[in-house]
Amino acid sequence: MAPPLVSVPMKKNKKPSLVLTLSAAGLLIGAGSIAYWLLNQRQTVSSELVGANIIPGDTLFAVSLTTDPQQWQKLRQFGTKETQAELDKNLVELRDRFLTNNGYDFQKDVAPWVGDNVTIAFLAPDTASKPAPKPVTTNEDAANDQQSMVMVLPVKNPEIAKSILAQPKTLKQGKWIDRTYQGIAIKQNQGQAGENFSAALLDGRFLVITDSPKATERAIDAYKNKTSLATTGGFGENFPKIANYQPFAQFYVNVPTAAKIAAASPNRPLPAQVLAQLQNNQGLAGTMTLEPEGIRFKGVSWLNPNSQRVLAVENKAGKMQSRVPAETLMMLSGGNLQRLWGDYVLTSQGNPLSPIAPEQIRGGIKSLTNLDLDKDLLSWMKGEFSLSVIPTTPKQGSPDDFRAGLVFMVQASDAYGGQSLRQSAEAAIKQLDEVMRNQYQFQVQPGKVAGQPVVNWVSPYGTLTATHGWLDGDVAFLVVGAPITDKILPQPNNTLASTLPFQQTVPTEPNPTNGQFFLDVERTVKNFPLPTLIPNQQTLLDATRSIGMTSAVSDSRSNRYDFFIALKKVTNMTTLPSPESSKSNSATPSTISP
Q1: Beta strands in 450-573 (DSSP E)
Q2: Which of 114, 148, 495, 584 could cross-link 215 (Cys pair, CB 3.0–4.6 Å)?
Q3: 586 near 577, Cβ under 8 Å?
Q4: Per-residue confidence (pLDDT) for residue 276, from 0 to 100
């Protein structure tokens, strides 16, 4: 006989089982934990320069560095033995100057209480705020005109920081004295000139160390009167644009202050019109992070909030890397050549620091080609453009005059409506053909490459010098040097955009973009000699695989830039010398500390 139907099962369905209850509780706990973790991660994203509310607003330059020893160890893994040795040398010098020589050890005396990042700021000398340079005649004037340094160390353990500040290490020379400024206790030493360090604890949250009593007072004033870097025009709006999780470093450059210092220099003063132009710019800032294959920089620059100048938000680049072959060594692209030239003229006219004066460029083109740069050429160059270096494939028996071709491409179209301006372009190019034929006795010969019409300029000696033609109807190209036109006509199947080096090096943000840059350093250095532009250039090049950059106009007041430098890695990495061994030049290993 079947058991009678009862309502017990229904009651069990209404009442959740133990397993279901525990599962739900676990799910809630897990979700809560994830939410808490995400909230904390959001808080640890560095969207503000550490100590920006303390550093005076007219600061010339500020840099924030991580205190995480693992990140410094990771930095030392990049490059070659030569670059590692140079980095180690600088790290040891900084450590010994600020810590070891004063009796401190980072791991024992600083790490237990310091925050994740410390900031070093270089204040502008008083001459930067003066209307005109003044001769220095007294020791007091000299002290005021010296550039001062402010170091801000966030405090995560106030008790330890207070005890260290209350009982500092005994000085080798001079003595510690106590004083008060605006209610803030200051500990400073009386030592040799240039070694008068001061320290003050602000609200128990920040330890401020400076190299002059005056700089300490300026930092306290900025903090209390809210005249710090954080309140400087555009800083609060733009610095968050380059926020990143656990950055290795962040920096800020005060452009108008730097311009004033340059204007006050007796050796190479800036003209008044150049100084006025630079006042339109306010700041340049960046964030540096370490990734498995290299170093990434996120940068932003912005205009002075009071400037009448505005930026055109026009980001229409990003196609040229698909028009050049995979073996391309270098490519630089932009969204609007006419506008780029206009910006260059605006910031470079009359500027002695500019590479080439705009007037010289205009005059040079006029004298060489009898063409007006603005009317005949740039008037139709309003679309995307690029400049590329493409190596040639050596042919047996042919002279190796050129090992690469320089390729210029530009879209002949209106920047806004996209209307083709090919007719205007063809008229200017026809004039250029006549100049090459009549003035320089070149043979101007029509030809075909992959079934497409081109025009070749052949020098009087019979060597193919240049080729020009059209791609996709409205993209004009000019090839100079090696005959590599067959590498871009027809459009290659394996393009630069499809290669791993390009994809892994050139940042995908910001997007859309108004320009990109790619350089295969390894292959370029191996095959072509490069001019020396910076000290230790070869050492740096030997450590680099490739360089990539993407830029965009963020809004009417700011530009964004992302860089990535793909680096080699040291195979057998040595350890940083300890403070004791660095004095005796021995090789005793030690854990790295910033």
Answers
A1: 452-458, 464-471, 475-481, 515-520, 544-555, 558-567
A2: 148
A3: yes
A4: 63
Q: Give the CA diameter of the chain.
A: 118
The single residue listed with the structure tokens 């500019």 is: 354
Q: Give residues with Cβ within 8 angstroms of 483, minimum separation 6.
A: 392, 405, 464, 467
Q: What is the 3-state secondary structure (H, E, C) of 260-318?
A: HHHHHCCCCCCCHHHHHHHCCEEEEEEEEEEECCEEEEEEEEEECCCCCCCCCCCCCEC
Residues 6+ apart with CB under 8 A from 458: 442, 443, 445, 464, 465
pLDDT in tens, 489-508: 999 999 999 999 999 999 99
Lowest mean pLDDT among 107-111, 122-126, 141-145: 141-145
The reported pLDDT for the residue numbered 267 is 65
pLDDT at 53: 95
Structure tokens at 254: 């005060």
Alpha-carbon distance values, 204 to 12, 356, 568 (Å): 59, 52, 43
257/350: higher pLDDT? 257
Nearest CA to 100 out of 585, 582, 589 is that of: 582
How far, in Å, CA of 405 to CA of 151, rounded? 50
Q: Which of 556, 590, 551 is nearest to 574 (CA)?
A: 590
Reported as type and span, the H/E element at residue 72 is helix 69-76
Count CB atoms within 10 A of the CB of residue 60. 20
Name the residue with tokens 């940068």: 299
Residue whose token pair is 């079934």: 451
Beta bridge partners of 19: none
What's the rounded mean pLDDT across residues 452-468?
A: 89
Confidence (pLDDT) at 586: 38
Asked if residues 270 and 481 have their Cβ atoms less than 8 Å apart, the reply is no
561 near 300, Cβ under 8 Å?
A: yes
3-state secondary structure of 439: coil
pLDDT at 132 (0 to 100): 41
Q: What are phi and psi of 532, to 5 degrees?
A: -80, 120
If you search the block for the tokens 């290993």, which residue do you land on?
Answer: 589
73, 564 in Cβ contact below 8 A? Answer: no
Which residue spans within 109-216 are E strands per DSSP? 117-122, 149-154, 175-181, 184-190, 198-202, 206-210
What does pTM read for this prediction?
0.82
What pLDDT digit, counting tens, does each position of 380-406 carry?
Answer: 999 999 999 999 976 654 445 678 999
Terminal Cα-to-Cα distance of the chain (whole angstroms) = 84
Residue located via tokens 């000019």: 478
Q: Which residue has the higher pLDDT, 294 or 44?
A: 294
Q: Which of 61, 481, 17, 64 is nearest to 243 (CA)?
A: 64
Beta-strand ranges (E) seen in 53-203 are: 61-66, 117-122, 149-154, 175-181, 184-190, 198-202
Highest mean pLDDT, choosing among 24-28, 86-90, 429-433: 429-433
